[in-house]
Amino acid sequence: MLLQGYLPSILEGAVLTLKVAGASLMVSVVLGLVGAAFKMAPSKPLVLLAELYSTVVRGVPDLVWMLLLFFGVQMLINEACASLGWPAPEIDSFFAGVMTIGFIFGAYMTETFRGAIMAIPKGQMEAGRAYGMGPLRVFFRITAPQMVRFALPSFSNNWLVLVKSTALVSVIGLNDVMYRADTAKSITQEPFTVYAVVGAIFLAITTVSDLLLKWLEKRYSLGVRESEL
Amino acid sequence: MIDVQFMLDKLPAFLGGGDGQPVFSVTDGLVLTLELLGISLFFGLCLAVPLGLMRVSRNRFVSGAVWLYTYVFRGTPLLVQLFIIYYGLSQFEAVRESWAWAYLREAYVCAIIAFTLNTAAYTTEIIAGQIRNTHWGEIEAAKAMGMSKGLMMRRIVVPSALRRALPAYSNEVVMMMQSTSVAGLVTLADLTGVARRVFSDSYLPFEPFLTAAAFYLALTFLFVWLFKLAERRWLAYLAPRKH
C-alpha cells in the first residue's frame, strides 16, 4: 500500500491547497485591478500609495509577509478585543492564508494589469468616452476584453508562482498538503516517498494550469499575427 | 505600539552577533542569507551555462533530459525540493551509510544543494532562451570566418547570450534572494530564522518580522541597483538612444 494509507489524506490536503490558491488568486486579481487603477489615476497620493504597495510587497519574501501578517494581525485583533473587553476571536487560518497570499500577489498583479492596460492604444478608450460611455462601461466593453490578451502571459507566470507559494501556508497552521505530508512523514518513516508524491501533485497542478493558460492565450490572440523572422 | 528599542536591541542578532558578542561574530542572520545566496548562485550559474548549451542541442535526448530537469524543478515549490533533500534522503540506507551522510544531514548543505539545483533550472532556461535569440547573422559571420563550433560558442554565442540574459537574470537573483527565506524552516538561522527565533522568545510579531522585512527590502534595492549598473556596462549597445 502506497504510503501506508496516507495517500488519501495527502490528496485531501492538496484539495485544500488548491482552494487556498484559487481563492487567493481572486483576492489578488481584485487588488491588482484596484492597484493598477490607482497607479494610473490622476491623483498623486493614489499613485504613490499604489507604488508603495507594489514595491514594498514585491521586495519582501512571501514567507516573511505570511509570518508578519498572520501573527501581527492576530495580535492586533487580540489587543483590540482585550481593550474592549470582548473575548478574542479565533482567526480562521484558511481566511488568513487566502488574505495574505492574495495581498502579496495583488502587488504582482498590479504590475501585470498596469502593463496590459498601457499596451492598449489610448485612443480606443478616448473614443469610448466620446461615444458617451461611462468610465466603467469603457472598462468592461473596451479595456477589459483586450487587456486579457496582454495580461495573460504575465498572469500565467504569477499564477504558477502563487501555486508554489501556497506550499508555505502550513507555517501559519493550515491543514494543507505540506502539513499532511509532515504528519505522514513522521508516521510512515518514508519522507522521500511522501515529498516525492507532494512534488508530483504540484507538478500536476502547474502542468495542467500551464496547458490551460497556453490554450487561453491562443484563444485571446485570435486574429493577431505572430511576427516571424 | 512598536517597540523601537526592542528592535534596536535585537539588531545584532540579525547581523549575526549573539548576546554580548560583537556583530558578525557568528554566521547567522544577514551573513547566512548572503552566504546561502552567493554560494548557490555561483554553483547554479556554473551548472546553468553548460546545461543551457545542452538545452539547445539538436540531439533530442540531450535537450530532452535537460528539459525534464528544468520542468521538474520549475514546476515544484522550492520548499518541497528542500524537504526532499533534507528529510527525504534519510529514507535510503545507502545514503545514510555513505561518506556523504556527514554532510547531507546538515541543513546548511541541504539548503545549498536545493537552492543551487533550483536556481540552475531557472537560469538554464534563461540562458537557453537567449542562445536561441542569437541573431542568425552573427552565427553566419562566425561560420564564414571559419570558426569551429566550439570556438563559435565560446567567442560569439555564449558571451552575447549571457549579456542579453542580464535583465532576466537580475529577476532570478532577486527571486532567489527572497526564496532563501525558506532556509528558516529547516532550523537554519538566516534572516527569517533569526526573526522566528526572536518571535518565539518574545511573542512580539511586528518587531522581528519588520526588521527582517527591512533587510530583505534593502537587499532587493541593492541587487536591482547593482544589476542596473551591470546592464549599463554590458548592455550599453542595447540601451535606447539618448539623443
UniProtKB/TrEMBL annotation, chain A:
Pfam families, A to Z: BPD_transp_1 (PF00528)
Chain ranges of the ABC transmembrane type-1 domain: 14-213
GO CC annotations on file: ATP-binding cassette (ABC) transporter complex
Keywords, in A-Z order: Cell inner membrane, Cell membrane, Membrane, Transmembrane, Transmembrane helix, Transport
Record has Transmembrane helix as a keyword: yes
Membrane topology per record: Multi-pass membrane protein
Gene3D superfamilies: MetI-like
Location, primary (coarse class): membrane
Subcellular localization(s) per the UniProt record: Cell inner membrane; Cell membrane
TM ranges: 20-42, 63-87, 93-110, 150-172, 192-213
Source domain of life: Bacteria
Alphabetized InterPro entries for the sequence: AA_ABC_transptr_permease_3TM, ABC_transp_permease_HisMQ, MetI-like, MetI-like_sf
One Gene Ontology MF term: transmembrane transporter activity
PROSITE patterns tied to this protein: ABC_TM1 (PS50928)
Family: Belongs to the binding-protein-dependent transport system permease family. HisMQ subfamily.
NCBIfam families: HEQRo_perm_3TM (TIGR01726)
Protein name as it appears in the record: Amino acid ABC transporter membrane protein 1, PAAT family (TC 3.A.1.3.-)
Source organism of the structure: Gulbenkiania indica
UniProtKB/TrEMBL annotation, chain B:
Keyword DNA repair tagged: no
Subcellular location: Cell inner membrane; Cell membrane
Any one of the GO BP annotations: amino acid transport
Entry GO CC: ATP-binding cassette (ABC) transporter complex
Transmembrane regions: 30-54, 66-89, 101-122, 173-189, 209-227
ABC transmembrane type-1 domain: residues covered: 30-228
GO MF annotation, one: transmembrane transporter activity
Bilayer topology term: Multi-pass membrane protein
UniProt keyword annotations, A-Z: Cell inner membrane, Cell membrane, Membrane, Transmembrane, Transmembrane helix, Transport
Top-rank taxon: Bacteria
InterPro entries according to UniProt: AA_ABC_transptr_permease_3TM, ArtM/GltK/GlnP/TcyL/YhdX-like, MetI-like, MetI-like_sf
Protein family: Belongs to the binding-protein-dependent transport system permease family. HisMQ subfamily.
The protein, known as: Amino acid ABC transporter membrane protein 2, PAAT family (TC 3.A.1.3.-)
